[in-house]
Amino acid sequence: MKNALGREIPDEILAGGKEVFQGQHHRDGYQYTKDAPRIRANVKPKGDKVLPSIRDAIIASGLKDGMTISFHHHFRDGDFVCNMVMDEIHRMGIKDLNVCASSVGKAQNSLVSCIEDGTVTGLSTSVIRDEIGEAVSKGRLKNPAYIRSHGGRVRAIETGDVHINVAFIGASTSDAYGNASGKGGKSDCGVLSYATPDSEYADYVVIITDTLVRTPNFPASILGTNVDAVVVVDKVGEQSKIATGILRLTQDTRELMIAEYAAKCMAATEYFKDGFTFQTGGGGTSLAVTRFLRPFMDAKGIKMDWAMGGITAPMVELMHEGYIRKLINDQAFDVTTVKSVHTDPNHFEITAGQYANPFNKGAFVNQLDFVILGALEIDVDFNVNVVQGSDGLLQGAPGGHVDTSAGSKCAIIVTPLIRSRIPIVRDRVTSVTTPGESIDILVTDYGVAVNPKRPDLLEALKKTDVPLCTIEELRDTAYKIVGKPKELEFDDKVVAVIEYRDGTIIDVCRKPKHLN
Amino acid sequence: MKNRVRRTMIFLNCQRAALIKDAYIYKPDCVILDLEDAVAHSEKDSARVSLYNTLKYHDYRGVERWVRINGLDTNLYKEDIRAAVAGGCDGIRIPKTEKKADVTLVADLVSAAEKEFGREEGSTMLMAALESPLAVINAYEIATSSPRMMGMALSAGDFCSSMHAVRTPEGTEMFTARQQMLIACRAAGIMCFDTVFTDLDDTESLIKETELIMKMGFDGKSVISPKQIALIHKVFTPTEKELNHAIHVLEAVKESAASGVGVLVVDGKMVDVAWVEGAKRVLKLARAAGIYKGDL
After folding, report:
1. What is the rounded CA–CA span in Å between residue A275 and residue A303?
2. Neighboring chain A residues of B227 at a CB cutoff of 8 Å
3. What's the CA gap between A155 and A147, in Å, rounded?
4. Do domains A46-242 and A253-491 have the same CATH topology?
5. What pLDDT was estimated at residue A421?
6. Which of A276, A339, A502, B23 can pair with A369 through a Cys bridge, CB separation 3.0 to 4.6 Å?
7. Best of A257, A420, A424, A480 to disrupt the B interface by mutation (most B CBs within 10 Å)?
8. Phi, psi at residue A30, to the nearest 5°?
């Protein structure tokens, strides 16, 4: 069945009541009853909840074949928790597990061998990269992976589309009763936003920490009232890799040029006034936009009410310089940010649900004025792919892309027109992650295209010196330089399902033939 | 077109396809597609092929395309000239030019190539890079050596090395060479370009050096990184006061020509026709910077 974007969704994916994507607001007003965990009452006082090992916690949880377990990614490339747990599960011979992660990448590579031998047969995640992305692309996972945005993951958990049996939550610190936090300890990650829904909806919740502190460990991101067991290990993560990763401050003239165009676009809109709100992604160009905002804000004498999302040092600096009133943090990317969220009274941690869940009564993304986002590919209808490389490999992340672009008043994509010999603007994207109706402006090194659904923005941008053109002109320029790409050939086998944030199916990823 | 704004001429290594495919997006006035120093000896042939295809098939959107050929002491330059002319370059930059004969040698080969590849005879411009004390002494001879000559450029690295001089931020060691070359260019009626600034992180000194050479009278500067382009253009952008004065001068001269008055007062200063060229130059730079859209 074709969805609203003309993407063919196989019937077997729709079995069980799934719907195809029908527009970004299709499920506005949708009514549902929240899923609930099956709680084991703790009537009789038992002292503390500390168990001697991860194995003991797995046994205590009653984990069995076919169940769903979950992990978060706040320890980023420095995460040890997923590998420690999966190694133990592997040794115990438990099979056919469904892993519900907020992100999988390099640090979770142990999942690959678990996928190969059937320990893991299902996966849902908001980020998929590296060897796991390759394994899933090759069809090694028994069932199609579900790719969900950050908001979509929380929605899936709350509606019961995914029911987590056991949540394994790495924490920088915890007390013996499971009040856990991303702050302090040997592996300080700042916040635990993405683990909060897991702690609230999983049947059994295990905190894994390397720093047990005295009770109460307040303020706690994970409440002890939701926690069944605490395990203390030597190390939950590698600090130097927790606070680094994709983020870098670019010196590349091309990226800086794109960033400057984006800042000029922002400054030209009606939303650029005192109290505006802003989020930017973690790519070099997206980050660089912040540095170009200063002079425009100075010229108008305005401040930002808040900036949100994965927070980085440039944002913290802007707040310290008085350009931003509050920071709202769902992920801390660097040491400066980790330190700031601990100490700065205007820097707040929020949960993933508060951040982006489309089904709650008001996610913060709905209050965004601007968001700056990247793209692996974008088609002439402004549909964006951030999941699947042009070689067909799963190597990206919807993350908050889908949520923030849908919620914000002005979603700006920043990307070079060409990467190596690959045209980024093209007739058709390999798969759709974010629908074109959510995207307002495309900024490239060759020019700026405004979505025709926003004539108001086009008028505003005509007053700037940014080079305006149509998205078709950008595509033509790209094709003229590097040629029109040959369509990839795919098998029928669906290796991943891209679920829109509201639970409808926006696209599927099939196995590329060249990976046979 | 010999007479146009050339504030920046960026060197691009022809060995790097990713670099030469679209450097026009950085909005330099000219690019210099380099076959000489930047290209590894083993890659000279492939660089020449890339050059030809770039010239032939890439739309540089009005950015002027120059080619720096290999030195006249190599066995490479003849084929370089054929590839450059066949591709349709705007001009050829001759490295290490020391005397008139260097230019006439290249000019003759260019003429032959223009005939061979059906290009309009005389359409390929030349510029000479002066890189030695002898070149600076022969500056006027070189500047007037061919009607194809568009300009001359100084190369500080080689020049200072042969002078046993040390580069300084103030540029004292370059002062005489700059002046002599500039005087020769102006006497010959061709353009004059300053050397590259090699410290990519020191934007402050780049701006100072550009201010210096702009005030001396240079038309522009060679560039090695896209990040230097906007900074140099900014220095060459007239101030609002300069722009307004130039507009007033041209308007006043136009009016006075009609009334037959030779000398007049503009913004409190005596002005005559001798000011016109300077005012036109200001408007040309203002137009290039996008701050003047009038038709004076």
Report:
1. 6
2. 251, 253, 256
3. 13
4. yes
5. 87
6. A276
7. A257
8. -60, 135
**Per the structure block, which two tokens stand in for A358?**
């489309």
Averaged pLDDT in 10-residue chunks for chain B of 296 residues: 89 94 94 96 96 94 96 97 98 97 98 97 97 97 97 94 90 94 97 94 94 96 96 96 91 77 75 82 94 86
Which residue in A89, A82, A146, A147 sits closest to A118, CA to CA?
A: A89
Distance (Å, rounded) from C-alpha B154 to C-alpha B198? 14
Tokens found for residue A137: 């692309």
Q: Taking Cα atoms as reference points, which of A170, A168, A172 lies closest to residue A211?
A: A172
Task: Note whether B21 contacts A445, CB cutoff 8 Å.
Answer: no
Q: Which domains does chain B have, with CATH numbers?
A: 8-235 (3.20.20.60), 240-288 (no CATH)
CA distances from B161 to B83, B98, B133, B156, B165 (A): 31, 16, 10, 8, 6
Measured in angstroms, the CA of B284 and the nearest CA of chain A are apart by: 19
Which residues of A lie closer than 8 Å to B, measured between beta carbons?
251, 253-254, 256-257, 418, 420, 445-446, 465, 480-481
- Sign of the four-CA dihedral A91, A94, A97, A102: negative
Which ranges in chain B belong to alpha helices (H)?
Answer: 17-20, 44-57, 77-87, 100-116, 133-137, 139-143, 156-163, 175-188, 203-216, 229-235, 240-259, 276-288
pTM of the predicted structure, to 2 decimals? 0.91
Bridge partners, B149 (sequence order):
B126
* CA-closest candidate to residue A273, choices A119, A460, A145, A115: A460
Q: How many residues does chain A have?
A: 516
pLDDT along chain A (516 residues), means of 10: 96 93 96 96 90 98 98 95 97 98 92 96 95 95 97 98 98 97 95 97 98 96 97 95 66 93 98 97 84 94 96 91 96 90 96 97 96 96 96 92 98 95 95 98 97 98 96 97 92 96 98 89
For A46-242, give the CATH class. alpha beta
β A384-385/A410-414 pair status: unpaired
Query: Which of A251, A256, A481 lies nearest to residue B22, judging by beta carbons?
Result: A481
Give the residue among B53, B81, B83, B64 at the shortest CA–CA distance from B10. B64
> Which tokens is B206 given?
């780049």
Q: Which architecture, in CATH terms, is A253-491?
A: 3-Layer(aba) Sandwich (3.40)
Q: What is the number of other CB atoms lying within 10 angstroms of the CB of residue A244?
A: 16
Q: For residues A153 and A126, give the distance between their C-alpha atoms in angstroms, rounded to a whole number.
A: 7
Q: What long-range pairs does A109-113 form, CB within 8 A, spacing at least 24?
A: A109/A83, A110/A82, A110/A83, A110/A86, A111/A82, A111/A86, A112/A140
CA–CA separation, B113 and A427 (whole Å): 42
B26:A420 CB<8 A: no
Query: Min CA distance, B9 vs chain A (Å)?
Result: 16
| Distance from the B131 Cα atom to the nearest Cα atom in chain A, whole angstroms | 29
DSSP assignment string, B43-60: GHHHHHHHHHHHHHH---
Domain ranges, ordered by start, for chain A = 46-242, 253-491
Does residue B225 sit at the A interface (CB-CB below 8 Å)?
yes
Predicted-complex ipTM score:
0.83
- Residue B140 at interface with chain A, using a CB cutoff of 8 Å: no
Q: How many residues does chain B have?
A: 296
Q: How would you classify the pairing of strands B191-194 and B149-154?
A: parallel
d(CA B263, CA A352): 76
